[in-house]
């Protein structure tokens, strides 16, 4: 039997492609698919693209960290209430190649400023985190991300593990829709986390790849207020791959939120040098789409409706899947949490059960038991649950 514990999602996708079975089922990738099995282009995105084709007057624009319109759009999306006097932090937005590009840039920046600092990752976490962050020399720490009970993550365990972190270390936190568990800290837990980071001088590093998929873009960003009130600096890596469906445009941002203006500007300048010496400057198509939509209230409202449509679909499918598990009498055995958000559900399965599902039934899921509910069409649920039942 081929063991796939350490197999990456890309290798699994290759095996899936080679699998000749007509009824094979790919539940690996975190890509939103509608009930017809396609990843749609949003109407708001199509309109923005059409507008650009008609109106773009030049391709000679050069902004190392992105166009000001794009930076404004990201700033407003992350901090809807920001502006006016009394702001405590300086916010610098740097356009990146998706959240992956933002994380990679963070790795380089951390290495530049504090090569001995560790980056603490949740265990489990997104399988690609160590790889995209690996340009920093300080290595990784790990904090356990475990259930306190069916409806809550254990913050006590997280904080107990982070006791070993040193001042100046970074803590990577999934701002919402934790990958792979789908279970997030609640606002009161975020506040405690912010207090903890402030006391220990730890620097929060947010992966915000799923903004809008838990509740709404504004509500999912609420936790940042607690951090602004408590910590001197934090970093946010966000993405428009998922919430605008712009996967292959590679568009996201690294946002620096620093109390000290001089430091923010210094980091921004270093980021410019790093960008110039690697890919020179970012592409503009995706960033145009984002700013065209977000900087106009009507277009933004239309996009929010489309995003809400995707989210509601995921909520409905998750509920249907949970019901199907309950009807089969295996819900308690299979689910770690009752209240997951976003694209993923983590199933309590052994590596052997996961291998058997793939080999016997052509059902592909990650070696840690993560499935993407966004790839599980309602009509496929009975077959999937039956296959699950057969391996338990
Ligand atoms: C937690 C997490 N972070 C980052 C990413 C990468 O996002 P992007 O496509 O914007 O690079 C993903 C996508 O799979 C993810 O799940």
TrEMBL record:
Keyword hit for Transferase: yes
Pfam families, alphabetized: Aminotran_1_2 (PF00155)
Domain of life: Bacteria
Keywords of this entry: Aminotransferase, Pyridoxal phosphate, Transferase
Cofactors (names): pyridoxal 5'-phosphate
Location of the Aminotransferase class I/classII large domain: 23-388
SUBUNIT field: Homodimer.
Family as reported in the entry's similarity comment: Belongs to the class-I pyridoxal-phosphate-dependent aminotransferase family.
Family annotation (PANTHER family): ASPARTATE AMINOTRANSFERASE, ASPARTATE AMINOTRANSFERASE, MITOCHONDRIAL
Name of the protein in its database record: Aromatic amino acid transaminase
Species this protein is from: Tumebacillus lacus
């Amino acid at each position: 039997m081929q063991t796939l514990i350490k197999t990456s999602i890309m290798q699994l996708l290759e095996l899936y492609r080679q699998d000749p079975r007509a009824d094979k089922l790919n539940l690996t990738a975190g890509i939103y698919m509608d009930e017809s099995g396609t990843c749609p282009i949003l109407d708001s995105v199509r309109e923005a693209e059409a507008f650009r084709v008609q109106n773009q007057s030049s391709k000679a624009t050069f902004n190392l960290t992105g166009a000001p319109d794009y930076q404004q759009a990201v700033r407003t999306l992350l901090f809807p209430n920001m502006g006016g006097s009394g702001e405590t932090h300086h916010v610098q937005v740097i356009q990146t190649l998706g959240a992956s590009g933002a994380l990679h840039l963070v790795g380089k920046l951390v290495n530049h400023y504090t090569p001995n600092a560790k980056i603490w990752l949740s265990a489990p976490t997104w399988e690609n985190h160590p790889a995209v962050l690996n340009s920093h020399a300080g290595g990784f720490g790990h904090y356990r991300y475990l259930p306190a009970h069916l409806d809550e993550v254990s913050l006590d365990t997280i904080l107990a593990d982070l006791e070993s972190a040193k001042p100046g270390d970074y803590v990577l936190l999934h701002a919402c829709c934790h990958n792979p568990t789908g279970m997030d800290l609640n606002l009161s837990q975020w506040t405690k986390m912010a207090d903890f980071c402030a006391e220990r001088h730890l620097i929060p590093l947010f992966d915000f790849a799923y903004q809008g998929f838990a509740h709404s873009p504004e509500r999912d960003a609420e936790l940042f207020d607690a951090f602004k009130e408590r910590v001197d600096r934090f970093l946010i890596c966000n993405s428009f791959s998922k919430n605008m469906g712009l996967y292959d445009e590679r568009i996201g941002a690294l946002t620096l939120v620093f109390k000290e203006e001089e430091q923010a500007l210094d980091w921004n300048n270093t980021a410019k040098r790093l960008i110039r010496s690697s890919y020179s400057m970012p592409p503009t198509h995706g960033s145009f789409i984002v700013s065209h939509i977000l900087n106009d209230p009507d277009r933004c409202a239309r996009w929010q409706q489309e995003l809400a449509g995707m989210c509601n679909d995921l909520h409905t499918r998750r509920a249907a899947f949970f019901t199907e598990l309950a009807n089969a009498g295996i819900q308690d055995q299979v689910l770690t949490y009752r209240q997951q958000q976003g694209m993923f559900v983590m199933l309590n399965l052994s590596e052997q059960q996961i291998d058997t599902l793939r080999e016997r039934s052509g059902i592909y899921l990650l070696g840690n038991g993560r499935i993407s509910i966004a790839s599980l069409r309602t009509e496929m649920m009975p077959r999937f649950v039956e296959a699950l039942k057969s391996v338990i």
